[in-house]
Amino acid sequence: MTATVASAPGKIVLCGEYAVLDGAPAICMAINRRARAKVGAVDTDYHTVRTSGYIDGEWRFRTDRNGSFEWIGSEPPAGGLDLLQQVWKTTGINGRFDVTLDTGEFLDPVSHSKLGLGSSAALTAALVTALFDVTSNPGDAGIQAVKAHRLFQQGRGSGVDIAASLNGGVIEYRMQESGVGRSLPWPAGLEYAVLWSGRPVSTSEKLRKLDEGCRNSSSGASMACLIDASEATAKTWAAGSTAELLAEFHRYVDVLKQFDVDHDLGIFDAGHRELADAAAQRNVVYKPCGAGGGDTGIVFATDRQAIADFTDLAGEAGFRLLDVLLEARGVLFENRAIH
What we know:
Radius of gyration: 20 Å
Largest sheet: 9 strands, mixed
Helix content: 25-40%
Number of helices: 9
Distance between the termini: 11 Å
Strand content: 15-25%
C-alpha cells in the first residue's frame, strides 16, 4: 500500500481572540509543532484508524452513504474521534482507507495534557489534505478543512487556527470560508517566549460561555472596545514599528482584561493575570493566548535578557517555558501516494 502523509503546524493567537468572531482581525503565528495524517487506500470492506497523541489506539469502522460511522468491535472513547467523523461527513469521500493520526507533539510529555497549541485544527488541515490527495479530489482542501473544523466546534470557531495551519508564518485573519489569511512579516527586534500554565482548557466551553454572556448582556461596549484594540494592534503590526507595537499590545492587554471581567470568561485565570500584572511593571508585555484561562501565554520584549528574566519569574509561578518557535511552512506533504 502506498500512502500519503501530510502534516500541518499548530498555532498561537497573538491578538484578536474573541473579537475575531465579530469581524475584527486576528494575528496568529504558526508554530513548530506539527500534526500528521497518513492515509492509504485499502481493499478491505472496512476502514482502519490508528491514533497517537490525545488518545492512543486502533479501531475499525464502516460508513454509510451519509458518512455515519459503524464501529467494528471495540469503540474509541466517547468523543475521542469526533473530528475524524466530522471530516468524513464533510468531505464525502469514497473508498476504503487505512488512516494514522498523530498529535503527539501537542501534548505535555509528563502529564499527557494538551498544551493548547491548535492540535485539532492542525490535524484537520493535515487529514483533509491527505484524503484529497489519495482520492485525487480536485476540490479546495482548505475550504473543506475550514467547514469540517467549524462544525466540529459546533459552529463557534473563527477559522483562524485552520488558516494558520494551512498558510504557516504569521497571518492577519478575518473570518471567511476559504481559510486565507494575509501574510505578515515578523517585526524586527521583537523577541518572544511561549509559556505553558500547566492547566489545559476547553476552547469550545469558553466560546459557549461567550455566546451565553452576549445573549444576556444589554451592552456590547466591551466587545466594541476589544474590536477597536484588535484593529489598532493589527494596523500597528503591519506598519512595522516594534516600539509602537509593544505600546499597542500594552493597551490591548488592558482592554482584554476588561472584556474578561465584563463577560466573566476567566481569560486571565490560572496565573495569567498575575503574570500580566508583573509584566506591566517591567519592560515586557505578557498575555494569554487564544481562549485563555489556562493553556499558553506569550511574552514580548525587545530585550532578550528581559524575556529570560520574565520566564524565570513565570517558572517560579508554576509556568513552563515551551520550545515553541515560528514555523514558516504551512500544511505540506511528507510523502505522496502513487496513483
